[in-house]
Amino acid sequence: MDMRHVKLSELIDRQPFGRFLCTVVGLGFAAIILDGFDISVMGLIAPQLRTQWNLSHDTLGFALSAALIGQTIGAVCGGTLSDIFGRRPVIIASVLSFGICTLGTAIATSVSFLIVTRFLSGLGLGAIIPSTTTLIAEFAPKRMKALLVTLTLCGFTVGGVGGGVLVAYLLPVYGWRSILVIGGVMPLVLVFVMLPFLPETLNFLLVKKRSRSDIEKITNKIDPDFDFGRFDLRMDETSENPKSSLKSIFSGPYMKGTIFLCLADFFVLFLIYLFNSWLPTLIKEGGGYSLKQSALAMSVFQLGGPLGSLVIGWLMDRYRPNAVLALNFIVSALAVAGIGQSASHYGVVCGLAFVAGATLVGGSVGLAAFAAEFYPTETRATGISIMLGLGRFGAILSALAGAAMLTLRWDLSQIFLALLFPGIAASLVIWGTRPPPRPVEEPPQSPNANAAQTISSS
């Protein structure tokens, strides 16, 4: 029988946003919620924990930073493991380990045990984002890929808001341990939902040459009319060295892009975490506003994130992604600098804080979507994880930078003018980052009709 060859991208791109794709995005969204929830609740329960255990600021800071260190390591390692063992098992294992370790934190009775469980929780959390981003990107049709990736990563903000509401109601009555019990149970419930419903990507199954039955099972969910008796599903791209993911992203045509993506993420996370840590203090002390006004400005910054993420994802699906991101970071730089020059006008400060949140948080999410498109299947998760892992050093540096600027007694205009430069730098490096051409596997037979017509004829 004459076997017609069909590219995987054509099968993926013609699928509607139906029940299957909605389930995949929903489960990815739920996994990302855990990250936002964890960061939100740990900062909010810290004062009660410090009082009950009589901890110094330094000790408490080290305990809280243990998770960030774990996330950095988890982000770097999680993607590589995902490229070796699959996206599905790494996501499920990461969510499971995070849940168990968070429950361990809830029963902690010593600082040392708390530090260990927070570090281990961070390992699981760090691996979730690159693996989930890769899974969504490989199932999403090209026409909505960036939008679905950014939509999924908006779960971070939802988790942060949900965690804040939960803490407000439960912490005064039941204490900090109750929050962590809920934070540990939620991932375990999610694991039981993921086990039957979270699929492995066809990209990974084809690259690793998994069994035909596994491939057919997922293909039938995407297109029930696909006939494996008449069509042969093929990858679009081939790789000369599919087994060396880490080496591949730092060599050949991907080396420059990998370095530039890491630099862009470094600059963007530096600004985001500096705003998260220091914006209320900077506005209160530098602008002379009340604590309530400072907190409101911070809330406006956070509110801009989800909207910016969705808009940037929509634009990236329609225009050149690196150009969209480069322009976005120019806008973010101008908004950040403008905050310092408008310190005497509170309404303008809040408006610029909203724009800064939309462009910085949205740009960070957009970088993950761009990285998912930049790398081929066999190195995609590794590339995303390296970008996110190395970028987190910008988050770590931001805490020191904020303290240093305040120690030097810079005024508000000087501080925010200095913060113009990371945004400009992020724009320049992402402008110079373009996906290299990929080798395409030529099928041994060339059907007269195109692949999309071939599939529909079944």
From TrEMBL:
Transmembrane parts of this sequence: 20-47, 59-78, 90-116, 122-140, 147-170, 176-198, 257-275, 295-316, 323-340, 346-372, 384-406, 412-431
Disordered: annotated segments: 436-458
Leader sequence residues: none
CDD domains recorded: MFS_PcaK_like
Superkingdom of this protein's organism: Bacteria
Keyword line: Membrane, Transmembrane, Transmembrane helix
Cellular component terms per the entry's GO annotation: plasma membrane
First-listed, main subcellular location of the protein, grouped into a coarse class: membrane
Keyword Transmembrane helix set for record: yes
PROSITE patterns the record matches: MFS (PS50850), SUGAR_TRANSPORT_1 (PS00216), SUGAR_TRANSPORT_2 (PS00217)
InterPro entries (UniProt xref): MFS, MFS_dom, MFS_trans_sf, Sugar_transporter_CS
An MF annotation (GO) of this entry: carboxylic acid transmembrane transporter activity
Record's compositionally biased regions (Polar residues): 447-458
Membrane topology of the entry: Multi-pass membrane protein
Domain called Major facilitator superfamily (MFS) profile: residue spans: 24-438
UniProt KW rRNA-binding keyword: no
Subcellular location per the Swiss-Prot or TrEMBL entry: Membrane
Protein name as it appears in the record: 4-hydroxybenzoate transporter PcaK
Species of provenance: Paraburkholderia domus
